[in-house]
């Protein structure tokens, strides 16, 4: 489990796992139904990404997203 403190953390996770799977940004974009620009912006931690598309991209790469209360 990785603690996400900023958008760059999600971008790093996505980029690392995309590379592990041998996918180009273009191929990942095709699989997710997004543009290459979206994947590039996401991997670079752009703070204004559409959360639905981010979640879809995470799912394609085999991740689930959880939100937990701090201190619990």
Brief digest:
The chain is 56% helix and 0% strand. It has 72 residues and is mainly alpha-helical.
Task: Give the secondary structure arrangement, pairings included.
Elements: H1 7-20, H2 25-32, H3 36-43, H4 51-60
Helix pairs in contact: 2-3
The H-level CATH homologous superfamily, spelled out, is lambda repressor-like DNA-binding domains
Give the overall silhouette: globular
- Largest β-sheet summary: none
The rounded distance between the terminal residues' Cα atoms is 16 Å
According to DSSP, the number of beta strands is 0
The appropriate CATH architecture is Orthogonal Bundle
Beta-strand residue fraction: under 5%
How would you portray this structure in words?
The structure is a single chain. The protein has four helices and no strands. By secondary structure, it is an all-alpha fold. The protein has a single domain, classed as 434 Repressor (Amino-terminal Domain) (Orthogonal Bundle), CATH 1.10.260. It starts with 6 loop residues before the first helix and ends in a 12-residue tail after the last helix.
Record keyword descriptors for this entry:
72 residues, 4 helices, mainly alpha, single chain, 434 Repressor (Amino-terminal Domain), globular
């Amino acid at each position: 489990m990785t603690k996400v403190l900023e958008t760059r953390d999600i971008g790093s996770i996505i980029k690392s796992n995309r590379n592990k799977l041998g996918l180009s940004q273009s191929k990942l974009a095709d699989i997710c139904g997004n543009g290459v620009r979206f994947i590039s912006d996401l991997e670079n931690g752009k703070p204004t990404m559409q959360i639905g598309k981010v979640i879809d991209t995470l799912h394609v790469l085999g991740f689930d997203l959880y939100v937990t209360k701090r201190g619990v």
